[in-house]
UniProtKB/TrEMBL annotation:
GO cellular component: extracellular region; Golgi cisterna membrane
Name used for this protein in its record: Beta-galactoside alpha-2,6-sialyltransferase 1
Organism lineage: Eukaryota, Metazoa, Chordata, Craniata, Vertebrata
Start-end of Basic residues biased regions: 119-129
Record InterPro entries: Glyco_trans_29, GT29-like_sf
Superkingdom classification of source: Eukaryota
Membrane-spanning parts: 26-43
Compartmental location: Golgi apparatus, Golgi stack membrane; Secreted
Species of provenance: Clupea harengus
Tagged with keyword ATP-binding: no
Membrane topology: Single-pass type II membrane protein
Pathway the protein contributes to: Protein modification; protein glycosylation
EC number: 2.4.3.1
Length: 499
C-alpha cells in the first residue's frame, strides 16, 4: 500500500519536473520567436531603410555609391570622366597656402572610428546596456534598441552614446551629439584636425582656451544671448577706411545689408551637404520668406530637394577668385543678393586685411560689379568671422581650429540678424547622413561634414546646443530651429521672450 502511494507521489513529482522543463522550453522558444520577429520587423517595416541602416550600417546600403580611391581623382556632377583637381581645393587643404597641402579624403573605414577611451563622455552618454546585452551580437543589440526605444524613428536623443557616424557600424539613427570632440574622429581626420588646431595662419590670440572645460556648459538661451550681444553682423560701406580712398568703393552698397533687406518672418539656411540629396525638402524650403545658399550650390535640377528660391548667396573668396567656378560669367550667381567673405588676420584692421586677403576678393568684386551693376552685392566685415570664432572657442572644452567658421555658420548667424525664425537644413546631419560632400557633386569626404580647415565639428556643437526644435526634426528633416535676434530679449542675461 505504502509502495503504491510512494509510486503515485513519485509520478506526480516527475510530472511536475516534466511540466517545469516544458515551461522552460516554452519560454525559451517564445523568447527566440520574439527576437526573430523583432529582427523581421526591423527589416520589413515601413521605415526599413533607416532601421536597416541602424542595424547594418549605412555602408551596407550605399556600398554601390561611387567613392574616390586616389587623392586627386574626383568625379564631379555625375560626369563619368575623372577630373583631376588641385589638391589645394580639397576640404582639408588650407586655401591660399600652397606650401601646406593636407589632403583628407576619407577612406572606407577611417572616416570616423569610435574612440571609447574618450574621457569627456558624460556617464549618460556611455553605452546604456551592459550585462546580457553586451553578450549579444551587434546586429541583434541594434535591432533591440531600434524596437524598444533607443533607436526608434524620430525619437532619438542627442545623447550620442555611439560616436561612429559614417563607418560600417554607423549610428544612422543618432542625431548630432553637442559634445562631439576631435578625439571621437577616425585616426586620419583627427590628425588633420589636430594639425589645423596647431597651426595659426591668421595669428589668432585667445587668452584661455581651456576655460570652457572648467565652467558649466552654457545653456541654449545663454548661448543665443551671447551671440546676439557680441556678434555684430555688418557689411563694408564706402566710407570705411581704407575704402573711402578708392574710387571703386562707390560700388559698395552705401548701407549695411540689414538696413536694406528684412526683417523676414521665416528664413531657411540650406547647407550644401550631400544629405540634402533625396530629402524632398524643396517645397518646405521655398515656403520660407527668405532662403540663403552657399558658394556654388545650384538649384537647377535639384529643386525637389533644395528648392528654387535664393534670397541671399553667401560666397567665400575662393569661389569668387577661382577659374573653376566661373564666378564672373556663370548664371549660378546672378540670382538674389550676393554676400562675399574672406578671412582676415585675427586682430587686423581693414587696412591690413585689404593688403593681405586670402584671395583677391576686391579685384573680383570690382570686376563682377562692372558686369552686373544692378545686382546687390555686399562684403561681410571680416570682424564678424572672428567674433563668431571667439564664441565657438570659448564654449568648447578643447582648442578648435584657428581658422574662420564655415560659410554655413556665418550664413546662419547672418539670417538670425534678419529673421524672426531661422530653419537650418542638413547642417546637423539627418538620417540621410552620408560622406557625400555636396548634394550636387559626387565627391566623397567626411571632412566636408565634420570639418578640417573650418572648425565645423564645434560649430555644429554650438548649433545643436542652441536648437529650439526637436531631435526628431533633425533626424527626419535635418532641420534645426533657431530664433532670430529680434525674437528674444537679453536685457536680464537670458532671453525673456522666445518665439
Ligand atoms: O562646401 P561648402 O563650404 O561650399 O558648403 C557650404 C556650407 O554647407 C555646410 N556643409 C557642407 C557640406 C557638408 N557635407 N556639410 C555641411 O555642413 C557647411 O556649413 C558649409 O560652410 C565654405 O564654408 O565656404 C565651404 O566652401 C568650400 C568651397 O570653397 C566651396 O564649396 C567652393 O568650391 C570649402 N571647400 C574647399 O575649400 C575645398 C569648404 O571647406 C567650406
Amino acid at each position: 500500500m505504502g509502495y503504491k502511494i510512494t509510486g503515485a507521489g513519485m509520478d506526480r513529482v516527475s510530472q511536475l519536473w516534466r511540466l517545469r522543463r516544458r515551461a522552460r522550453r516554452g519560454a525559451l522558444c517564445m523568447a527566440l520567436f520574439c527576437m526573430s520577429m523583432a529582427v523581421l520587423y526591423t527589416l520589413c517595416a515601413e521605415n526599413s531603410v533607416p532601421v536597416t541602416d541602424a542595424i547594418f550600417g549605412e555602408r551596407a546600403r550605399t556600398r554601390a555609391q561611387p567613392r574616390t580611391h586616389s587623392l586627386v581623382k574626383v568625379l564631379r556632377g555625375g560626369a563619368s570622366k575623372p577630373i583631376y583637381v588641385d589638391l589645394q581645393k580639397l576640404p582639408g587643404v588650407i586655401p591660399g597656402d600652397p606650401r601646406r597641402p593636407i589632403p583628407v579624403l576619407s577612406s572606407l573605414n577611417h572616416s570616423l572610428e569610435t574612440d571609447h577611451r574618450d574621457h569627456r563622455l558624460r556617464p549618460k552618454d556611455r553605452k546604456p546596456h551592459g550585462g546580457f546585452m553586451s553578450w549579444l551580437p551587434r546586429p541583434l543589440t541594434r535591432a533591440i534598441e531600434t524596437l524598444f526605444g533607443g533607436r526608434r524613428k524620430g525619437e532619438l536623443s542627442g545623447a550620442g552614446s555611439d560616436t561612429e557616424f559614417f563607418g560600417p557600424n554607423g549610428t544612422l539613427g543618432e542625431v548630432w551629439d553637442d559634445e562631439m570632440s576631435s578625439t571621437m574622429l577616425g585616426k586620419r581626420l583627427r590628425k588633420v584636425v589636430q594639425n589645423y588646431q596647431a597651426m595659426n595662419k591668421y595669428g589668432v590670440q585667445f587668452p584661455d582656451v581651456g576655460a570652457a572645460a572648467r565652467h558649466p556648459k552654457r545653456s541654449g538661451p545663454e548661448l543665443l544671448c551671447q551671440l546676439k550681444d557680441t556678434v555684430s553682423i555688418t557689411t563694408l560701406t564706402p566710407e570705411m577706411e581704407p575704402f573711402v580712398r578708392f574710387p571703386w568703393a562707390t560700388q559698395l552698397p552705401p548701407r549695411h545689408l540689414s538696413m536694406d533687406i528684412g526683417p523676414f518672418k521665416t528664413c531657411a539656411v540650406v547647407s550644401s551637404a550631400g544629405s540634402m540629396k533625396n530629402s524632398g525638402l524643396g517645397k518646405e524650403i521655398d515656403a520660407h520668406d527668405a532662403v540663403v545658399r552657399f558658394n556654388a550650390a545650384p538649384t537647377t535640377g535639384f529643386e525637389k530637394d533644395v528648392g528654387s528660391k535664393t534670397t541671399i548667396r553667401l560666397i567665400n573668396s575662393q569661389v569668387m577668385a577661382s577659374d573653376d567656378h566661373r564666378f564672373l560669367s556663370s548664371s549660378l550667381y546672378s540670382n538674389g543678393i550676393l554676400v562675399g567673405w574672406d578671412p582676415a588676420p585675427y586682430s587686423s584692421d581693414l587696412n591690413e586685411w585689404y593688403n593681405k586677403t586670402d584671395y583677391p576678393i576686391f579685384l573680383q568684386y570690382q570686376r563682377y560689379r562692372r558686369l552686373h551693376p544692378q545686382q546687390p552685392f555686399y562684403i561681410l566685415h571680416p570682424r564678424v568671422e572672428w567674433q563668431l570664432w571667439n564664441r565657438i572657442q570659448e564654449n568648447m572644452a578643447e582648442p578648435i581650429q584657428k581658422n574662420p567658421p564655415s560659410s554655413g555658420l556665418l550664413g546662419t548667424v547672418l539670417m538670425m540678424s534678419l529673421c524672426e525664425v531661422v530653419h537650418v537644413y542638413e547642417f546637423l546631419p539627418s538620417r540621410r547622413k552620408t560622406e557625400l560632400c555636396h548634394y550636387y557633386q559626387r565627391f566623397i569626404d567626411a571632412a566636408c561634414t565634420l570639418g578640417a580647415y573650418h572648425p565645423l565639428l564645434y560649430e555644429k556643437n554650438l548649433v545643436k546646443r542652441m536648437n529650439q526644435g526637436l531631435d526628431r526634426d533633425i533626424y527626419t528633416h535635418g532641420r534645426v530651429s533657431l530664433p532670430g535676434f529680434s525674437s528674444f530679449n537679453c536685457t536680464r542675461g537670458l532671453p525673456s521672450a522666445m518665439h
